[in-house]
Design brief:
The protein has ten helices and 13 strands. By secondary structure, it is α/β, with parallel strands linked by helices. It folds into three domains: 9-89, Arc Repressor Mutant, subunit A, CATH 1.10.10; 91-168 and 272-303, Periplasmic binding protein-like II (D-Maltodextrin-Binding Protein, domain 2), CATH 3.40.190; 171-268, D-Maltodextrin-Binding Protein, domain 2, CATH 3.40.190. Strands 5, 6, 7, 8, 9, 10, 11, 12 and 13 form a nine-stranded mixed beta sheet that branches. A two-stranded antiparallel sheet has the order 1-2. A hairpin with a 4-residue loop joins strand 1 (54-56) and strand 2 (61-63). The longest helix has 25 residues, at 65-89. This is LysR family transcriptional regulator. Keywords: DNA-binding, Transcription, Transcription regulation. One of its GO terms (molecular function) is DNA-binding transcription factor activity.
Length: 317
């Protein structure tokens, strides 16, 4: 591999987009370029690096060993370029794009409070992604600024390009059809879910961190994961599919109302979902400062007095 490498950011963005999408058509759409131009840029990156980054077939695109190894470096270089551009352009002059994941979420509560205290010239614009895993890709590419979710559930190479602030230990719950035998209870012990099947967004790559959290919680408790299903976009579609399929759903205490279903807190132990505010390393914006102040001092990081569960290795202090 050559030692004197000069690759402009546009070419690195092409490499990163294809690496994350593993699909040239989707990557081209993401970058708003023609697929032919994207393919040409990727070839230029490979030529300048002296390494093949992708294995291409008529059916799939996968990263080579060199591609996997170099991807974290490309992300860090792009992040540095973005920091330089932000320092030169005065990033606080533009709207801050904040993903809250929905209207009944911790993130949306933080955003609402931030808007109440933000200076008049600070614009906080809402986006609704279905998971932190998907949102993190857009944060690293500069298409999004802030999101919320389980930071430790992201891959290590993704976390390397991000900063985070713990916001809440959110109590988890179960959404049940109102005729379910457990629906009459005010709370549902985890042991009562043995033999039950719960939907936890398996099959949706954008919410992989939530599915992983569910796997850790279900392990050894005899709780089954619902079969993978394509990602559900929007609250209306979620309600339609969940009701049609009769699923019980692993949820959190902040959750949308679903007609014909009831939300019950989980106990014995109380499972906690760590929610953090997440943003790109080096981001400097007045709106980010406002959001951080809005997330602080809420008492949301207090642990329950009763027995509780956190994912293994998760810091709670």
């Amino acid at each position: 591999m050559p030692h004197d490498i000069d690759i402009e950011p546009r070419l690195l963005r092409a490499f990163v987009a294809v690496a994350e999408e593993l699909h040239f058509t989707r990557a081209a759409a993401r970058l708003y370029v023609a697929q032919q131009a994207l393919s040409r840029d990727v070839r230029r990156v490979e030529q300048r690096l002296g390494a093949e980054l992708f294995v291409r077939t008529t059916r799939s695109v996968t990263l080579t060993a060199d591609g996997v190894r170099l991807l974290p470096y490309a992300r860090r270089v792009l992040a540095a370029y973005e920091e330089l551009a932000a320092a030169c352009a005065g990033e606080s002059d533009r709207p801050l794009l904040v993903d809250t994941g929905g209207t009944m979420t911790t993130g949306h509560r933080v955003l609402t409070r931030a808007r109440e205290t933000a200076p008049p010239d600070v614009e906080l614009v809402t986006r609704f992604h279905s998971g932190l895993t998907g949102a993190a890709r857009d944060i690293l590419s500069g298409r999004l600024d802030v999101s919320f979710g389980w930071f430790s559930g992201l891959p290590a190479d993704v976390r390397a390009g991000l900063e985070h602030l713990p916001v809440r230990l959110e109590r988890m719950a179960v959404l049940l059809p109102d005729d379910h035998p457990l629906a009459e209870r005010e709370t549902v012990p985890l042991a009562a879910l043995r033999g039950q099947t719960l939907y936890a967004a398996a099959g949706n790559e954008a919410t992989a961190e939530w599915t992983r959290l569910a796997e850790l919680l279900f392990a050894g408790r005899g709780i089954r994961m619902a079969e993978p299903f394509p990602g559900l976009e929007g609250e209306e579609e979620f309600v339609r599919v969940v009701r049609k399929r009769g699923w019980s759903v692993l949820a959190s205490e902040e959750f949308i109302a679903v007609p014909g279903m009831v939300l019950r807190p989980l106990v014995d132990p109380v499972p906690l979902s760590p929610v953090a505010m997440v943003w790109r390393k080096g981001l400097r914006h007045t709106g980010l400062d406002v959001l951080r102040r809005a997330a602080a001092g809420r008492g949301w990081l207090a642990r329950p007095a009763t027995d509780f569960w956190l994912p293994p290795g998760e810091a709670v202090d």
